[in-house]
Amino acid sequence: MTTAVVFDYGFGNVRSMLRALANIGVDATLTSDHRQALEADGLVVPGVGAFAACMDGLKQVGGDRVIYDRLRAGRPVLGVCVGQQILFQRGNENGAEAQGLGLIGGSVERIQADVIPHMGWNTLQAPDGTTLLDGIADERFYFVHSYAAAQAEPIDGAPLQIDFGGAPQRVAWCQYGQTRFVAAYERGALSATQFHPEKSAEAGAQLLRNWVATF
Fold it and tell me: Is 54 tagged catalytic?
């Protein structure tokens, strides 16, 4: 049976994700155990709250090492919401800058819009060749966030001893207010969504199926 670990570091809507994975036939476990997280077919990194707090919580339980080690081994990782944001190089919240995991080039900043947070359903501009959004590129997905990345650049994985194998990055974009931001990201074994697939009805379930099909 296909297995996935939802990484437990104190931040994230974990119960909804566990249910969503179970509903598509995945044996999903909530744990911060390194061996389980490394050996599972897939790893989900959730995240709710502030960028800096999530990074601190992740590091306290060694989650940063787990993510790096999985990617070094070419094993699938999916970041969700702030779990996507911390994959970037840095985040700026309330005038304070915090360092992220440095797996995607760019910074996470406050959205520019009349109403914050961005809460509700929105459409995407999907990239050609997408795996995550295959067959659902025109669907709507559920967002809840006040910060996002307005740019994404492929990093050189060599300093982190990560070989993306020449895999191109594929970025899906979303527009809210004056901000065009990264809604989903794909590069090799690394995938991420700013929206919540576990709250996005059948479109979200299909996205998770698409991700699981990469195992």
Answer: no
